[in-house]
Design goal:
Blueprint: H1 3-13, E1 18-21, H2 25-34, E2 39-41, H3 49-59, E3 65-70, H4 71-76, H5 80-87, E4 92-98, E5 101-102, E6 108-109, H6 116-122, E7 127-131, E8 147-152, H7 168-185
Helix pairs in contact: 1-2
Bound molecules: thiamine diphosphate.
């Protein structure tokens, strides 16, 4: 599957979700496909989308939070999966887009994510699922988290889109505003 199609399907299936995306091309893809104030682009550090997302999910139990991770980024901070599993945070779900490389920095090979779905389950995630078709992209509103969705995607065969033009401060500000608006409604 193509990464762009996968991200697009995730956004379409989860129109009210809050996305926390890892750095590099994954954030750029999300930005170019569907820029939204509910997207938190973690434009700095690999491995930090998941901790930020867990904090947001705990503090805002009424919103659905999706981590958009890369395989390299997951590997960078894999120990954090234990905290997600232990949290049993029902409004948090973890999507790993696995292209088997660090695509954003030139395509250096990553180490394989061996049996990552079973790893997630053993660490306390409700479930770990391999997704092999766009038809099976989840609607997370219908399921109790935390779940891990492992999606193998192709390396890019087309040029990457524009960089996220928002500054980190702007990303935080508009994200916080969107959560405040949500709190007024609910
Ligand atoms: C801690 C840290 N180390 C290195 C980098 C530089 N860097 C940015 S994106 C990236 C590759 C990320 O790989 P992956 O998560 O697999 O996503 P992909 O680029 O394949 O979409 C690297 C090495 C960084 N941002 N943070």
């Amino acid at each position: 599957m193509k990464k762009e199609d996968t991200i697009n399907a995730l956004v379409l299936n989860n129109p009210n979700a809050y996305f926390v995306s890892t750095c590099g091309y994954i954030s750029r893809d999300l930005y170019n496909i569907h820029d939204n104030e509910r997207n938190f682009y973690m434009v700095g550090s690999m491995g930090m989308a998941a901790p930020i997302a867990l904090g947001i999910a705990i503090d805002n139990p009424n919103i659905e939070v999706i981590i958009l991770d890369g395989d390299g980024s997951l590997l960078m901070n894999m120990g954090f999966m234990t905290m997600i599993g232990e949290s049993k945070q029902p409004n948090l779900n973890h999507v790993v887009l696995n292209n088997q490389v660090h695509e954003s920095t030139g395509g250096q090979k990553t180490l394989p994510l061996q049996n990552i779905c079973n790893v997630a389950k053993n660490l306390g995630y409700v479930n770990g699922k391999e997704i092999n078709s766009l038809k099976n992209i989840p609607n997370i509103k219908k399921i109790n988290g935390p779940n891990l969705f492992h999606i193998k995607v192709q390396e890019k065969d087309e040029p990457i889109g524009k960089r996220v033009h928002w500054t980190p401060q702007e990303i935080v500000e508009r994200f916080q505003n969107s959560i405040l608006k949500e709190r007024e409604v609910t």
